[in-house]
Amino acid sequence: MLWIIFQFLVALILLSVGITYYMHTNDDYWPQRGVPFVKPTDIGSIWQRMFLLIPLHKLDAIIYKKLRSLEIPDIKFGGFMEYRRQVAFLMDLDLIKRVTVKDFDNFVNRRGMVLNEDDPTLFHKMLFNIEGQKWKDLRSAMTPAFSTGKIRKIFHIITTSADRMIKYAQDEAKVKPDLDMGDICGRFTMDVIASAAFGVDSNNFVDRNSKFAIMAQKFSNQFDGLGGIKLLLAIWFPAVFRILKLYLLDIDAVRFLDRKSVV
Known about the structure:
The structure is a single chain. The relative contact order is 0.08. Strands 1-2 form a two-stranded antiparallel sheet. It is mostly helical. The chain is globular. Helices cover 57% and strands 5% of the residues.
């Protein structure tokens, strides 16, 4: 029994050392090119990053602060390694605008994941997860939908949902002293999306258990529990993720929110 435990511990140590070595063999990419960079160890341990113990938005905030702390005058961008992938981190507002608007044709790839091509939820075809010419074509097709004129046309939808939210919050405040603003703001967001994108009334502020609210909640919780494990597999072991034919989004929620099934 002790021998089995010893073998297990040795295997665990070797696995940990192997993963750590593998994840850091490409750390000299940015220094070799003279680009200001943040060491992976400066943004949390490999295990914190591997198991997403630090939220992604907090990791970006840490990277930004670390690059600023280098005290390089007029620093416009820096670099860091994300799961052995080199990532350029833009810090200058004008540069960000050029990359995302004026020169977007030359910057087509984002921090996506390699997923199954037959994913029924179509997650692999979303804008932030495709690359190359496919990204250019989809980006060009979607750009007109976010013009100033189009956004102005849905302003009344946003204000209507805001009025509903205010009334809902006032009614809630009459029966309980503490309000769950996360829930209220989430309902507001879903109400706007339902009206602007799908042309339907979500009924979020009338029926707490409306079908739209339930399905939308599945998206909010998609990376909890089993969903979190699938996300880790997609990030760290994409080959295993594809072999097991897994998908990230909830199929029932996707089918419900599909335009044809909602209208």
